[in-house]
């Protein structure tokens, strides 16, 4: 390729470019204040959005993108471009979610944020070390290797000689100018890179005959060195597909959407290189605008880098797409030479002069990336590691150490270059993503939880991160121990290593998140100072200047001590050292003066003080997060454009997919039987394995709770004045009976589910539904009818198998402990009525849902979501008026003191009360409750009659119906008897006190029997609540409304519904899914819904259920606080205790069991919160 190398004209262009870069760097040195830490590392925080946005783009698009993106495009098609569209979205997440928190907190490094958020040092130091490792593995070594390839192709120089030449200029620029020089050189580099890449792309498309020519010729670009009877050297069938097959592709769409996003959130939202540039913006508006600007530019790499790489394969097939030993003669590698695609294209199609310009562009990309990394790594090492070793280090020492660290990083990275060359089949860009996927997801989980969840603490964060790190580093070691085989060789690696790194990233993220969340409940809640202005929800808290502008210990800026005036003599010397002032005396040589100027240490005393004060003012201003409303509106409009544009990037995907859709379908048809064999049992067994894992976990928690019930014999101190020993023992026995019943019921359910899945119970029931249809003259084409029959048969089966357990629970457990008030006849009628109503409501909804899915097209999931939302709102509106009265009797609360007080309370907080009702719950059970219902301004409050104290409601009249006799009269007799018993016992005692003798004989025996019965009934007599206690309970319920808890739950549920339907949309056409559950010849929609929502989503449902339980407890604390603020603290505490006693709730719970299961906080925690002894 000697004829394609650069010549004298190219050299002139290159030299001219580098002279411009040096000029920009010197100008930045003059402009910036490099004598302070903030000035050197954060550019004084005075940058506008244009240089910051350009720097964000240039810091990302380094030489590894020119080499890596183009190389992966040449090797595997446009799929790698999806990473750029993903980045477009995550840049906005940085600007709108993460950056406001970073600016509000006044931090300068990411480990510093973690230290402020959680306290302690171990997390900060750990993240600093991990970040430096990631820089070595994924940034510096990759950049140097990619640039050396270009130099080798263009000049024929030795790779390592070219690396040293690059590093010399890059390190000099970074070490001398700090972040200001980096940002300004990045700005220049960004414009040069975009313009140069555009020229190459236009020229390349002309050479290949446009996009249509690329489509035709790329699939035919097969090298002469391809291996017969293998796919080696043959373009992928899905080369023009962005998001690819979920099973056997290089970029599976679920792994990309979820797994890559997890690791990319670290890069774009929590990596020092990117965040440091965003923090240099003068305020939040400029920071957001910079993210928007970088996002718009990120659309270009697909067309400027990926597709030109594919064109390079078309034009230079035998070189770029070579296989095996043939590559050794081309690029010196025995793996692949796709990484030379871009330099080979430039040297092949560009004329002299422009080749030199593009060489300069490559050097610009390298320098922009390396200068960013060098500055950020020196920032982390200096402020987060070295300062912990040398706590009394002066500013001058820190400045020098930061510059020396750059040299150390370079040396270590050079040693890692040979590893980069061979990893991931020679595709450099996939190597970067793989290493990031092994180390970054735990960092992503940590930062997301730190910013979005106030409950996470240092204990959970640290040990959760350790678990994630061990998991990731073990996979990384395995990847090096079991390298990917050469093309054509058998893959004998363990399955753990074969798993696509994107799926592994998802697993790591989920495991780390769950570990951090669970472990956080074992630690103390974070103190207010570790939350204020350090989470997204508290970013607008009152400003604490000491936290926004760090002191000397944290910032190593010596301003505070400048104001001190110690005594002269010996203290004078200490003052000068503390302030770290460098004075220019006559003794300084010219060399020393030059050294001070180059390193930014020539600043005088007053200049340093003034500069530092100005920078502190900038920090305070940016941390206020104030935005001009007009500017904010413009930014938000652009955000909407970005998101809508990313959603509409599908047409490109669809257009490209049309080209090869027939071929892809043909390949899928050929491989379907093989895939079924692989996954037929694996999906079902995997589902069962998870279900049994959950069952064992639940059983373990149940055992812990039973141990608490068996061993706890002391009443908690908070309840000793209100809870007697007898009630405490009754509640303990009731809970033990309930838990034992739950244990055996769960065993039965688990075995039943296992047998149904293993022996094809679902296909059998579908077959029976088809047989029923045949009896009425319908065939399988009537899928909706068959689905309705299937639902009816399944409901009947569930009803039959569930009735024995319901009977035992109601007529044995509940009746044994005095709760059941139903007769068997009433129970049977109620069960039948529930079944009929559920079928009348459920079947039409199910039919409508199936119809929408079958005829809704590609966006059916949106229509399904809208349909379910409308149905939910409709049922919410009519439930109280038309459905609930079918099962219970509702009567208005009578006029009186209680009703008036409730209406006044509702009016006090603007609660839109329309009806106030009492439900006759006592005909079923003596459990008590209260709730409100209704949509928008049509709210109804419902009180259980068992909640109210006797005498509040008028005396019930006997009803002629069986229900009235069996329910209402029985309860009325019990209530009346309770009152009479008390009077009778009091009268007997009074007569004895007056010296009167009771009657003897049979009359005495009758009286003794009556007294014993009365005492037994008195034991089960409910307490009820006074009017003030009822108001306190309702203040709690209205607090849920006032604090928008119902709205928040509705929003979460709707987002979850939309997400589930969207995922279902991807899975419903996956034939393997149906085949694995016994439906190889058909794919009924209802069966797909059942499989996906009940089985495939089971891990997601478990996680979501736990998170909603955590959220529910938080809402309960907030609602209690709301009632307390209304003045109902004492009656609310009293009501909670009474309800707990009435319902035989046990006041002591195992910590782990309650954390996982309790949607309401334990009674003791609620009492402590009401008394102000526990933070809510």
Automatic annotation (TrEMBL):
| Acidic residues bias spans | 959-969
Q: Which InterPro entries match?
A: CAXX_Prtase_1, Na/Glc_symporter_sf, Na/solute_symporter, Na/solute_symporter_CS, Peptidase_M48, Peptidase_M48_N
| Basic and acidic residues bias locations | 1002-1019
GO terms (molecular function) for this protein are: D-glucose:sodium symporter activity; metal ion binding; metalloendopeptidase activity
Q: Which residues cross the membrane?
A: 6-30, 37-58, 78-104, 125-151, 157-184, 191-211, 251-269, 290-311, 357-386, 398-417, 429-453, 460-482, 502-523, 747-769, 789-813, 834-853, 859-879, 1058-1080, 1086-1111
Q: Where is this region: Disordered?
A: 954-1020
**Segments forming domain CAAX prenyl protease 1 N-terminal:** 705-889
Q: How does it sit in the membrane?
A: Multi-pass membrane protein
- Keyword hit for Ligase: no
Question: CDD domains in the record, alphabetically?
Answer: M48A_Zmpste24p_like
- The entry's active site is 1037, 1120 (proton donor)
Q: What is its EC number?
A: 3.4.24.84
Which residues of the sequence carry a binding annotation for Zn(2+)? 1036, 1040, 1116
Superkingdom classification of source: Eukaryota
Its chief place of residence is membrane
The places in or outside the cell where this protein is found are: Membrane
Q: Which family does it belong to?
A: Belongs to the sodium:solute symporter (SSF) (TC 2.A.21) family.
UniProt name for this protein:
Ste24 endopeptidase
Q: Which organism is it from?
A: Paramuricea clavata
